[in-house]
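Q: what does this look like with WTA bound?
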Amino acid sequence: MPSLANDNFINNHTTYSITTSFINQANINQVKFDELNQKAHNNYEEFWGELAHTKISWHKPFTTTLNNTKAPFYKWFEDGVLNVSYNCLDRHLRSKAHKTAIIFEADDGAITKITYQELHTKVCQFANGLKSIGVKSGDRVIVYMNNSIEAIIAMQSIARIGAIHSVVFGGFSSIALADRIIDAKAEYIITVNGYHRGGKLIELKKMVDEALINIDKNIHQIKHTIIHNRTPDLNTKITPHQDIWWNDVVDNQDKECIPEWVTSEHPLFILYTSGSTGKPKGILHTSGGYLLGTIVTMEWVFDYKDTDCYWCTADVGWITGHSYICYGPLAVGATQVIFEGIPTYPSADRFWQMIERHKVTTFYTAPTAIRNLIKLGATLPKNHNLSSLRLLGSVGEPINPEAWKWYYEVVGNSKCPIVDTWWQTETGCNMLSPIPGVQALKPGSCVSPIPGIMAVIIDENGNSIKPGESGYLVITKPFPSQLRTIWNADDKFIKTYYPQDIADGRYYIAGDSAQLDTDGYFWILGRIDDVLNVSGHRLGTMEIESAITMHPSIAEAAVVGKPHAIKGEGIFAFVVCKKDSSIKDLSQDDKTTLTNQINAIISKEIGAIAKIDEIKFVEGLPKTRSGKIMRRLLRNIVRGEEITQDISTLENPAIINTLKL
Ligand code: WTA
């Protein structure tokens, strides 16, 4: 079990109590918190069942809460019938049709506002348009778009007609896109011709065209690509019959679209994420349970109020953008900001300007963004009126205490609680987080599981660890918002998340290690598998390694994470050249050329987000006699840690000295 944390750091913390004024207005106070926890412990199913009955508008209510007869393929609210888009839009029309649903701020500063009524109309028209071109319930539709109102319309419309979206982050390359299209067997793609991000033009339709060239038509065929004309002056290539402009899809469509009523376990989306293997896995989420998770966390963790202006800075291509842009905020009827650009464009205070301009109350971002902004200095936020803020959130990676304190003091003016939310693509919604009106905060700790989530830290045998020891973070009971399987890979789902060698496969294994402090607070230490967390983006080391070894001069590669001041984790690669280009013969120029070529391959295969920060060319990698690369050793080396493990099992122990940095 890797122990990344320093015990002193975990046990010598400062505690921040919540202000009385926040406590007095909080949705969940101590009494409610205790009641929720008590209920969850005493009658787990009733706890979730009651919430599902009250928080979701069912077309036909369910009678069975949890079906665990085929564990771990759990089913929640199985015989209930609903539509997720109905819950995000239609149910608000009676009381808040004219409330602003989305304030969209474009990269160039243009602002577009849309009410619930308008969004409903646009979703209905687009949903009708999708049906008119043949999209049916259960069909997979790729969404490859910028952060925009249209991306939300696309996702909501797909949900409305019972189809399944698979959003691909716009930073992924055409090859990565093609892999996802093929794996999901998606027949439709919704994209944008081009958009600007940080002033740079990004042409996604071109990437779609490239992806389709890479797909053998005998294996898989795309029926239609719908293109939003975001940048009208672009010369967009249109393939007749296959490509359709967004406007033509919605043209003359009816403004009402009766939702497709689906059962609670009907698939809502597939989202690909990186794991230990070379190929990303398609995480499948279904309707009722997922929706419930996003709603309760909006209310409990984000303390959502009708008067809030909520802003989650994530991209819709990641799970945070799904749960806390597309679904959670709309399901509770919030007004939210959606931003197309980057924090520092056109000026370094863009985030602070936006908070001031839109009077944002709830701001949810990633530690990497905070660290970037700290670099630019405290005067920038101080020059803006950020007094509308009342709650701050952090997600994606452990937040270092220095960044936490800056966020708390400079951005939140020492009055806004920070909810450090630990969760995953697989869990669908926040799992561990302070409940802000109740629990005191400690910088760097995500505090404890939210009510109804039975998370514990255990050793291999399933025994709870003692405070100060590190162990596996697991969730012992099924929960409504969890993934249902890996798309087309049920066996892999069981092996990855319910492995036999940890507690006999009884628990959901998160893939993170964690510690408890003496107050029972949870501290996430990091991944236990070969997954990196670079600027809050999840990347598999094997995916990167297989891209590196595509270079004709490279024999093998091992990628590990190295602590990085801004990104959290940087990508470090040990690379072995083929015999005929041994490293002894490599000049510094050769190494630079090779590095650039390798990064070009990575950009093409995965996307620029996976570019390597540092490469060390080496003669060989440390391997066991069975040929397995000992990554832990490599991790120790890049972190400058002492190597404490037994290296006598290495096939080539002498190699260690040649690897040192
Ligand atoms: C890490 C992102 C510490 C963790 C929502 C997890 C965190 C992985 C936190 C999931 C946090 C996420 N503190 N670590 N608050 N939030 N992580 O699937 O390692 O992109 O397993 O979901 O990010 O990343 P994913």
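The chain has a mean pLDDT of 95. Residues 66 and 76 are 5 Å apart (CA to CA).
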